[in-house]
Amino acid sequence: MTRYYYAGGRRVELEPDDQYVAVDEKAADAAGVRVGVGGTPVRRLPGGVIVSPRSELSEAGLERLSQAGALRPVFRHQDSMMVPLPEIRVEFDNAKQRAAVRKAIPGAPFQAQVSDESANGLVLRPASGRSDDALALANYIYEEAHPAAASVRFVQFVPKPDVRP
After folding, report:
1. CA dist., res. 53 & res. 38, Å (int)
2. Is 88 a residue whose pLDDT tops 90?
3. Which domains does the chain carry?
4. What phi and psi, each to the nearest 5 degrees, are found at residue 134?
């Protein structure tokens, strides 16, 4: 399945990065799986998510993390590593867009809960808590309701620029 997101109204393709795994630390602890205890350093992300080489986890550990809902997908776009989180931000320019989004939510492929709302937008979370569902839900809302923006929250790593002359 092709994964993508919208940025500035344009569809941006994502490439799965199977060498790494992102893990929700609280869910991993609850499942009794330790991540990043081997010799390879991990990256700690905001929101209690860590990125680790997949090779640092056993197949049994990966399965337990999956069953606990602790795994987050890792993608690449150009030189960036991207981890989607289970949160969608939707922005409106007008009342017509707000109404279209509100109409689209019940018909979405995944159930979602509104966790925050303001005059200019709202924040949704997939009921499943899965990042994959959030990505699909953001795309569905953007394609179905055409708001100003509908995007999953990403944590992104970009290589340091070479600033040498």
Report:
1. 10
2. yes
3. 18-73 (no CATH), 84-157 (3.30.70)
4. -65, -45
